[in-house]
Each structure stands twice: as structure tokens, then as C-alpha cells.
Write a structure and sequence with these properties.
Blueprint (H helix, E strand, L loop, with lengths): L7 E5 L5 H10 L4 E5 L4 H6 L4 E4 L25 E4 L1 H9 L3 E17 L13 E13 L4 E6 L7 E4 L4 E4 L11 H12 L8 H16 L3 E5 L4 H14 L3 E7 L7 H12 L4 E5 L1 H8 L5 H22 L3 E5 L4 H4 L21 H5 L2 E3 L7 H10 L4 H4 L19 H19 L9 E15 L2 E14 L7 E2 L4 H14 L3 E6 L13
Parallel strand pairs: 1-2, 1-3, 3-4, 4-9, 10-11, 10-13, 11-12, 13-14, 16-18
Antiparallel strand pairs: 5-6, 5-7, 7-8, 8-9, 15-16, 16-17
Helix pairs in contact: 5-6, 5-12, 6-12, 14-15
The structure holds xanthosine-5'-monophosphate.
């Protein structure tokens, strides 16, 4: 089933929740895409959306330069749902009046229904909702009627009297609005009248067909790292074209302990992918010898990886395609997605490959968010330890060894990291932890083991919670777990006699130390 037939478009006015709206809509089985608020009308129309959602945003519609979408969308006849800034814009553009409130309404409120409407089917009177706004509608827009009010907002929900334009002053997408998902479901299924064609199954079906049609009987190369994205890409393409997918797995010597063996066991032995294992540990470690500067480490690893991958790719006769794990957030040109973090550290992934290699790109995950990739991975029968694997940086442990990377330091960090993986990463109760890992601080401190004085290295434990890696909060790992990790690292890792905990959030710190 082609889920694109039921596309819902979200016009983004810069809200921190835009992505969340998209994810909720998709969780409800409806494919949606995010576009900037000023996306051209003709292009939007050509997409034939079944519904349009106007997101919230940080601006005020009372500002002279307030962002405005093309007003033609209101005469398309397609259902529209404005959320927060979205409803204020609808009001302003339909002769209503919006004023800066004296008091910002923020937090919990209750929704009192003024009339029955499909949008609130299944909701009781007085449901809890989440408000976050400075402006309020003070005069109803022309042709609209109020549907519900809250303690402080007389027009908490409005609707076009003879049409399909709706607006909510509160945020149905956040979990603080417990019935928010039902409201979105009503909008999609009762008002936009979709059937709900989007699922892991329909995605896999569509992508398989698409890859088969695109590649024909050609060959595809893929750099498999064992991370979630490249693993799902490889498994999907393998499903579509079998052995004509050639995977290259490069061991750069700064992977986690046993990583190469685990990845090969899963993909080669269990899932039967065609994989070439390149043991380049010595090449990378030799190139890194004596290098302390983090950016230099990144560049060395990035460049060497490209060189080795290119050599391997050349061995595959007449390969015409390169598969990559690009995700939806990398694709959208949306207002709220432009984070500042990209420029702080140079990230070297496979991104640089295609142009030089003259291969056509295949990006089967372009439409998916990270959590959807995991769902697809699960539906493809991939094991939990791959599907729930934490993000791991391209330069690997090299940027977690502060200062010079030596085989001995790699060994120490791998051992400490392995203990953390055993204690945190593999436990389901810690799945909310975005990343948890060890850092080797190459200073020595004094300790005492038995009756012996020791003078050995320090391991830092970093564990963070995050949505996307752009911002992060340090994870509150229970003391008992920290205690086990600390004891195990000091007892089991030769060369380490102290463990410290990193309690900084991003910003102002970053997740990785280098
Ligand atoms: P920072 O340290 O910038 O990390 O807060 C944000 C996220 O990006 C990952 N990271 C990298 N990933 N190549 C990568 O592929 C890199 O050079 C790199 N540096 C950081 C980091 O693990 C975190 O998830």
C-alpha cells in the first residue's frame, strides 16, 4: 500500500515540538512530512496532502515580520489544524484579533467543551491539556466558532463554521496532554478521513519495491558499521536484492570491545549478508600515533576510512550504487531543525564518499526518524542488541581517549566501556539513556590496592539522556549501579584506579569529550 497517498504536511513555524507532531502523526499510521512555513503553495498542492498542520512557533503574530504561510492553503478544501502559533495565525488571517496576554499561560489547564465536534470525539469534559503561549485570540476570526475553552483561554479550540479549518491553543502533541493523541487521531481519521496506510510493514514493502526498481540487476555497496542505521539499510537492501548487496565492514582499531566479532556473527553468520571484513587496525593506529588534537584525530580517521572504503569498493566489479543511512532529520529543510551543533565539531562519516566515487546514492531511510528505523529493524527480525544500539561516533574510541591513542590505552578504554555496556546498555530499564560510555583521562592518580600504592589512570563515566544529540542532560543513574560500575572498572581493568562521573549537560558541554 502506498502510504504517500495519505500524506499529511506539517508547515513548520519553528516550534520545538514540530518533530514531535510528525512523530505522533506517524505513530497513528499516517505518513507526514515537515516543510518550512513558507513552502511554495504550488509545490504543496502538487503533493496532494490529505491534511495540513500548522505548527507552533516562537514568534508572535502581532509582530510586523511574523512568519506567514501562503494563504491559498485555506481555500484548498483540505482539512487544516493550527496548533498554538498556528491557530493564532489562522485567527489573524481570518479577521480575528490576537493580543499579547498580560499573563503567559504555561502548563496544565483543562479543556471544557462548548459543543460536540468530531475532533473531540471520545473526550470527556475537563480533560487535562498543556498550554504554552504568550498571545491569545481575543476576537473570533470571521466564519469561525468556538469549540472549547480553558480556565484562561475563552477560545482554546476553534473551528471554521462551514469548513474544515481547526485550531487549538494548546499542544495535543506533548504527553502532558493525555488525550492529545486521540485529538490528533480524530483529526486524521474523522476529519481528513485517512485509512492509516503507514506502518513498518508497508514501509518495508514500498522500499523493497523501490530498491528493486531502481537497482535492476546492478550491484550496491554499503559501509556497514554495526550501528542501527547502516544495519537497517543493509538488511533492507539485502531483502530487496540479496547478494548483489556488498557490505564492507572496516575495523579501524578504535571500535568497542568484541564489536567486529559481534557484527560479523550477526550479519554474516545469522542474517547471511555478503560482507567483506577489512582488518585495518594497524593502519589506523599507526596513523594516529603521536596525535593528540581531537580535530586531527577526526580528520585522520575520516580520510583513512574513505581511502580504504574506496579501495574495497573498486574490488566490486561494476558496482553502480552506494547505500547510505541518511535519516529524515538530515533531509528536511525546516525552520526548527537548524541546530548550531554541526559546526562545533567536524563530523566525518561516509558523507564525503559519493561525489568522488561516481556512484549513485541509495538512501532507503530518508523518510524515517530514528525511532522508526528501530521499529523497521525489529520488523525485519534484527536482534535487540543492534536495534537498540546507542549511537557511536565515526571516530570511535579515539575521541574518548583524551590525548594520544595508543594500543594500550585503547585496550583500557575498551575494557572499561565493556563493563558499562554490561551494566547499563544491555538492560531494558536503561533504554531511555541515549549514550553511556567511558572516557580515558590520561592523568595518573594515586590509589591503594591491597597494601600496594598504585599510580594509575582515571576513567570518567558519561551517561546522557537526549532526543537527538543536539541537547542532552546527564542521566541520573542510580547510585547502586554506579557503585557496581566503579568497583568493576577498578578491579577488572588493569591500569585504572579511579572512576569519576561526568555531571555536565549539553549545552554548555558536549556529549563527547573531544
Ligand atoms: P557532541 O559531542 O557534539 O555529540 O555533543 C553529539 C552526538 O554526535 C556524536 N558525535 C559524532 N558522531 N562522528 C560521528 O559520527 C563524529 O565525529 C562525532 N562526534 C560526536 C556523539 O556521539 C553524540 O551522539
Amino acid at each position: 500500500m502506498d502510504y504517500h497517498k495519505e500524506l499529511v504536511c506539517i508547515l513548520d513555524f519553528g516550534s520545538q515540538y514540530t518533530q514531535l507532531i510528525a512523530r505522533k502523526v506517524r505513530e497513528l499510521g499516517v505518513y507526514c512530512e515537515i516543510y518550512p512555513y513558507n513552502f511554495e503553495f504550488d509545490k504543496l498542492k502538487a503533493l496532494k496532502p490529505k491534511g495540513i498542520i500548522l505548527s507552533g512557533g516562537p514568534s508572535s503574530v502581532t509582530d510586523i515580520d511574523a512568519p506567514i504561510c501562503d494563504t491559498h492553503i485555506f481555500s484548498l478544501g483540505v482539512p487544516i489544524l493550527g496548533i498554538c502559533y498556528g491557530v493564532q495565525l489562522i485567527a489573524k488571517l481570518h479577521e480575528g484579533e490576537v493580543q499579547r496576554s498580560e499573563k503567559r499561560e504555561y502548563g496544565r489547564a483543562h479543556l471544557f467543551l462548548d459543543r460536540n465536534d468530531l475532533l473531540f470525539d471520545g473526550l470527556a469534559d475537563g480533560e487535562v491539556i498543556w498550554m504554552s503561549h504568550g498571545d491569545s485570540i481575543v476576537k473570533m476570526p470571521h466564519g469561525f466558532i468556538p469549540l472549547a475553552h480553558s480556565e484562561n483561554s475563552p477560545y482554546a479550540a476553534i473551528k471554521q463554521e462551514d469548513g474544515v479549518i481547526y485550531g487549538l491553543q494548546f499542544h495535543p502533541e506533548v504527553h502532558h496532554t493525555p488525550k492529545g493523541k486521540l485529538i490528533l487521531k480524530n483529526f486524521l481519521y474523522r476529519i481528513c478521513k485517512v485509512e492509516g496506510l503507514f506502518s513498518a510493514k508497508s514501509f518495508i514493502e514500498m522500499v523493497t519495491k523501490k530498491v528493486q526498481a531502481e537497482v535492476g540487476d546492478g550491484k550496491v555497496i554499503c559501509a556497514l558499521s554495526g550501528g542501527v542505521d547502516s544495519s537497517v539499510v543493509a538488511t533492507l537492501i539485502h531483502k530487496a536484492i540479496g547478494d548483489r548487496l556488498r557490505c564492507v565492514f572496516v575495523d579501524n582499531g578504535v571500535l568497542r570491545k568484541n564489536e567486529a566479532a559481534e557484527v560479523l556473527e550477526i550479519f554474516k553468520d545469522r542474517l547471511h549478508l555478503n560482507i567483506r571484513h577489512v582488518d585495518a587496525r594497524d593502519i589506523f593506529l599507526n596513523a594516529l600515533a603521536g596525535v593528540k588534537d581531537p580535530e586531527k584525530k577526526r580528520k585522520i580517521i575520516g580520510r583513512l576510512f574513505i581511502k580504504i572504503f574506496e579501495e574495497e569498493a573498486r574490488r566490486v566489479d561494476d558496482a553502480a550504487y552506494l547505500a547510505q543511512g541518511t535519516l529524515y532529520p538530515d533531509v528536511i529543510e525546516s525552520v526548527s531543525f537548524k541546530g548550531p551543533s554541526a559546526t562545533i565539531k567536524s563530523h566525518h562519516n561516509v558523507g564525503g564518499l559519493p561525489k568522488r566515487m561516481k556512484l549513485k546514492l541509495i538512501e532507503p531511510l530518508r523518510e524515517l526518524f530514528k525511532d522508526e528505523v528501530r521499529v523497521v529493524g525489529k520488523a525485519l527480525g534484527m536482534p535487540d542488541n543492534i536495534v537498540h544500539r546507542q549511537p557511536f561516533p565515526g571516530p570511535g574510541l579515539a575521541i574518548r581517549i583524551i590525548g594520544e591513542v595508543t594500543p594500550e590505552r585503547v585496550r583500557m578504554l575498551q575494557d572499561a566501556d565493556h563493563i558499562i555496556r554490561e551494566e547499563i546498555e544491555r538492560k531494558k530499564s536503561f533504554r531511555h539513556v541515549w549514550q553511556s560510555f567511558a572516557i580515558l583521562i590520561p592523568i595518573k592518580t594515586v590509589g591503594v590496592m591491597g597494601d600496594e600504592r598504585t599510580y594509575a589512570h582515571v576513567i570518567a563515566l558519561r551517561a546522557v539522556e537526549s532526543e537527538d544529540g543536539m541537547t542532552a542532560d546527564w542521566a541520573r543513574i542510580p547510585y547502586e549501579v554506579l557503585d557496581v560500575i566503579s568497583r568493576r572498572v577498578i578491579n577488572e581493568v588493569p591500569g585504572v584506579n579511579r572512576v569519576v562521573l561526568d555531571i555536565s549537560s549539553k549545552p554548555p558541554s558536549t556529549i563527547e569529550w573531544e
